[in-house]
Structures are given as structure tokens and as C-alpha cells.
Amino acid sequence: MGGTPGMVVFLATLVILGALWRIDFLLNDSVTVANVVTNVADGRLAVTEAPYALTAGEQPGLVEVDGVLYGRNYGQAYLAVPVLWVLDATAGVVDLRLLLAAGWSFAVLGLGRAVGRLLDRPIVGWIGEVACLVSVAAALLVATDVDWLTRPRPLVALGLSTLLLAATGATVCYRLVSWAQGRRVGFASGLALAVATPVGFWGSFPKRHVLSATALLLVVYLFAVSRTGTDRRAIAARAGAYAVVGFLASVHAFEAAFALAVLAPLDLLTAPTNDRRALGAVAVAFGVSLLPMVATNLAISGQPLQPPRTLPGADGPLAPGQAAIDMREIGRPAGVVGDAGADLGASGSLGRPAAAGLLGPVAALLDRVAWVGAYMADQLVAGLAAATDLDRLYHVLVRSGWIPSVRYHLSDYETLETAMLEVLPLAGALLALPGVALAHLREGARFERLRAGLADPVRQTDLLVGALAVTLFLAYLPRLPLYAMFTLRYVLPVMPLLLYAVARMPPVRAAVASAPRTLGGAWGVTVAVAGGGFVWTLAVLGLARGEVIQFLALSGLVTALALAAATATRPIHERDRVVATALGVAAGTTTVFVLATGLLVYVDGNHALDLVRLVVARLPAVG
Amino acid sequence: MAWRPGTSTLVVATVLVALVLAGPAWGTPTGVGGGTATVSVLSPEALGEPGASGDDSVTLRTTPGRFGTAATYLRIPDLVADVRDRSGRPQLRADLSVDAEGIDPPPISRILHRSGTHRLSYPDVALPPQGYDHGGTPVEPGSYDGHLEVRVQSFDGDHVLVNRSVEVVVDR
User: Fold this and answer.
1) Domain membership of residue B58 as a residue range
2) Would you give the end-to-end CA distance of chain A in angstroms?
3) Considering its fold, how many domains does chain B have in total?
4) Which chain B residues are Cβ-neighbours of A24 within 8 angstroms?
5) Inter-chain CB proximity B66 and A543 less than 8 Å
6) Which residue from A416, A160, A308 is spatially nearest to B68, judged by alpha carbons?
7) Is the complex ipTM higher than 0.90?
8) Which residue in B has a C-alpha nearest to residue A321's C-alpha?
9) Pairwise CA distance, residues A369 & A377, whole Å
10) How large is the average pLDDT for residues A520-536?
11) Chain A residues with CB inside 8 Å of B23's CB?
């Protein structure tokens, strides 16, 4: 967990995102995964019970094999099922709403105690205890049923596991950045991941992206730890990095494949040792971690390396908005809606296996590995080509607005899509990277020193972070910009890596380490002033959803550019407080985005906590 | 040394006992039930006259999107209603239908779980800019007939409160 600061990061994430958590679907492909959770908990992979949908058409991503329906993202479901068991075990004893309120209140209590320990102020712990009691008492007074769902617990379990994953991701971020940049910068980064990146947006919805983001952070952290020695702990961490990638394959095989393609060569090149003990541990851990994916694939497609995502869809006659939500993800060819597997199967690469024909299962397996490799290479080549399209890059990275290529009729003509700097203004600091690198070179960096630097575990980790970020970004870039992304959700796993890169910049490190009060103050003032200003704007102008998102996006872009300017001019003004203020304002802007979207925009009386629901009902409504 | 519970342990224990005592079905239902309510529309004022027939037309006009969105919006004013003599869980429901393919605001409703003032917010309806050709249904500029119906519904009855024609003017 990382001691008391790690506990604070974990619990603060749970408390904040828990308050924003809605027991609902933002995108209808989550319906499929919630149904998968229901069926897996009942002991089967096939989707025979679908409490969240009446027809196959309501479940994008559903696939059909020999007349049997299956879902996807089974790894995500495997993580949610233990949570569901706990919820089911309490079903006959405790009311679901009260259970959720009590769980959140316990997190408040724990946070109070942890902050009290951190500040050496026991009174904060007592405040946490009182807040816990008051919160539960209030919940008892106003508790309502979750009666808009016939069977709420599987969806609640999926949402709760996503929340826990977000909190885990923030804690891993804290530990990773602490390791590289010191505890103070690590603490700020951990909290920032939760409230100043789109992870905060997605932590309160049951999508897989938070899982992917947390998994990649964990891979990087374990990689970092494994660079520091050859003892048992380092080897276990190295094996753990591969194990996380292996498990990720059961959630999204292609994201895992890209992660492996980056991790494996960098690991082998930079590991302190490649002896038999280390490589053996890696092989065993990776092999075991692949079992969930392999077993799932074998049971469904009969092929260990053919995930459900690549099988022919059973979506049926979908309405256009339903059909297309997730069809363009990696693993499905761009532009194909519906029968994607058949399209690729025609080329002999992705259809149901010809049981390897004359060549046998091993050759079939190798054939599939070769196909995966070729597919990934194709994606990266397409990504490189897309990266030369400046118009595309502008809309993906800088400014969204009304993007001419996006099919807005699938989101009721609302401009809900945003660009990277708009929702992750902290990444604005990276615009100053060329200048910072130049200053570094002027200070006398030479090729020999750079080469020696690559023997440094932190630099090696930087390399992994950079390679992962670039690879995943390029892999998804040809599909972007795209509707139903909200905050470029496909590249959400890249965002924590960018946060790490920002934290690694010397001006940022100096600012956070030497002016933490300025940073925190700027963040708090921004949240209060910009948050209040936003609510006022909403009340006065009566903004529609798309306008709200664009208003917030523009605010983010302005603060991103301000942060870029403050960081780039650091050698001139030489004031850490200027950079710290810009960081706080940029982070605060995203916090306002997370709060506004979680409390006002994507809401429908569906907050998990009744108290939040009642507060939200008294705020101005989004038109 | 004997273990002595701290205050946090006592707080947690108290909460757990309260949860168990409350039982598995403590929450109140949120859906529509039986009951009645006397409702008068306060805003828009044009809808408020009691006994109004369908003759007085209300006009809604589209306005341009702001902050970089090229969509045009049909902004439907909030419905503010005063609720008295309420019993049970009746529902206030408003439904605006427009004789134009491509303008299809969803009905809105609210459970009247208390007396007093209730505000129902219609989501604004976004219309595509001219020249948008990726799909969907284009809406040409012009004037369209619409119809607004506001009801109080429950399992005990269904009372029509407002039944008005509405003119929708789409500008570009």
C-alpha cells in the first residue's frame, strides 16, 4: 500500500470517486460485461441470463459460437465476481443502499485516521469518525431502493471493482513516482491520477479502461522495482510485471500483446540479470497468468489465442448507435460494424480455426501468433501514417470542438468528445519538454553520459513508459477522433504514463517538492472558484450537455497552455511557485471536469449514494 | 495488555449493528406507485392557466450552440409545478412531440415524493449543422407543429394537466 501516504491516496480516491459513482451504464457495451459478470458468478461463460438487456441487440460485443452467446472482457468479470459474492452474501442481512453507504462511510473514517496520522493531528481522525456516523445516520433516513434495475448486484459489483481498481492505480502511481522522484512528488502524482486525469471520470463507470490503465501502471512499477537488484524481491517483481500483462490479456488481448511487445525486449535488454532463475520465474509467472485467457478462449472459441472480441458478433439488428459503440477498438477492423470476425476470417486469419488442417495444433498456434504479430505491425504502421495527419492530431491532442470527421448523430449531435490537453491539461507541461531537453544538453549531456544514464533504473523505467505510451497511442490513433470516446477513453492507459512523464520533468519535480502549499492552494482555489463559476455559468446560460463539455474542455486547454508556458519559461523566471501554481490550476481544472461530469452531466438520479443524489437534485440541471 | 477497542472500532461496530437492525429491505421504493396530487403549473406561465384548452400556442425557437459546438439547440424551458395535497407516489410526466423527423425529445418525468415546488428539466435537443452528412436525419429550417402534454399519473389514475399545441421554429 505504501504506508500512510499510500493509504491516504487509496482512500481519498475511494471517497471522491465513490461519491461520483453511478449505478448505471454510460455506454451500452458495458451492458454486455455486466451480463457476463452475472453468468460467470453463476458458473458459466455463456450468456444465458441477461438481466440488463432483453435482446442480443442491446449488448454490443456479444458473440455467437455454435448458437451459444458469449460476452467479452472476461478478465474484467473475473475481478468483479468476488465482489459480487460478498454483495450476495450480505443480501439477506443488509440493505444494498445502506451497505454501499456504510462502505463509503468506512472509507471516510479510514481516510480521516490516515490523514490524522500523516499530519500527526488526531483530531482529523475523530472528525472522520464523526463524519462516518453522520453519513450512515443520514443514509438510514433517506435510503431508497435500487429499483430501476431488476438485479442490481452484478452491476454494482462491476462498478465497485472499477472503483477499487482506480484507487489501486492511484496508489501504484504514488509508489512509482515516489520511487523515481521522491515521496512528495509521488504523493501529489497519486492524488492527481485520481482527481486530475480522466481516470477520475472513468473510475465511476464500469468500463475496462481503468483496469487497463492500472494494469500498465503496475507493469511499469514492477519493472522499476525489478531493475534495482537481483534478489528474490526483484525477481518476483519482474515476474509480476509479466503476470499482470498475462492477466490483462484476459481483458483485452491486443492491449496486452502491445504491452508485451514493448516490455519483453526492454526487460531483457535492461535487466540486472538474465540468468536461468530469473527467466524461469518470468516464464512460469507469465504462463500461469495466461491461464484465464487461454482457458476462456479454449472454452469459447476452441483456440487458445482467439479471444471472444475477434469472433463473429451476435449483435443482431442493432440500432446504429448501439452497434458501433466499440466496434472500432483494437481487435476489430476499423469501419466494420457488425460481422467483423467474418470479414477477417475470409482472409483465413481470424475465422474459426480450420482446426489447423494438416499442420496440427502447434502449427495453428504459431499461425495465430504470426497473425497477431502481423496485425500489431499493421496497426503501428497505420498509426505512424495517422501521426502525419496534422488535422487529426490537432483534434486528438489539442482541441476538439465540432470535429468534421466524427459521426455526431450517434451521440444525438452532442459534442461530447474531447482532446488530450483539454481533459489532461497537466500534459501541457510536456510541451516544454524540448526546451527542458535542450537545457539538459547545454548543461553538458554527452552521448557517453546518455549511455551511462541508460544503466540507471529510473532512466530504464522512463524508456519503458515512453515506449508503452507511444506504442499504445499509435495503435489507437488511426481510430481517433471517434464518437463515444468522451475523454479519448481508448488511450486512457496512456494518460497515467504521461502523468509519470510530467512528474519526471525537473521543473515539475522542483516545483512540487519546494512549493507543495502553493500547488495545493492553487488546486483548491481553482476547484472552488472554477467549480463555483461553472455552476453559476450553468445556472445563467442553461448549457446543453455538448456545450458544458466544450466549456470545460476550453478551460482545460487554456490551463494546459498556461502550464506549458510556465514550465517552458522556468529558466527565465526561475520561480518554482509559478510552475506550482500552473500545475495546481491545470489539475484543478480537470478536477472540476471530473466533478461536473460526475455530478451534473452524465447523471440520471443514479448515484450510488443517496446523499449525493439528494444534493445533485438541488443543483442546476444541464439542459 | 488486554485489547481495548478504540473509538473507530466502536464506530464500525455501531454502524454494523445499525445495518443489521435495519434489515435487507430498508430503502424506500423510487418508482411510481399509487396516490394522487393536486398540481398547478407555475412556469412556463403560458401553460399555467387552469382549464386552458389547446388553442393558445407556445412557440419554441432553436438557438445556436456555444463554446465550439456547431449543433443548433432546441431549448425547452423547465417545467415548474406546485404540488399540493399529495399522497402516495404519483408521477408528473411531460411529453413534447414534434411533427418533424429528427426532433424527438424524450418524455421527462419525476416522482412526486413530496409536496412543494418541483422543477422538471427537459434536455435540450441538438440538431445537426447544415451540411452534416455522416448520417442521421437532417432537419430543414422552418416551422413545425408540436404538442405538449403534461400528466399526473399513478396506479390510481391518470390526469391530464396540460394539453397544448406548440410551434417549433428551426432557425439556422
Assistant:
1) 35-170
2) 42
3) 1
4) none
5) yes
6) A416
7) yes
8) B136
9) 12
10) 97
11) 93-95
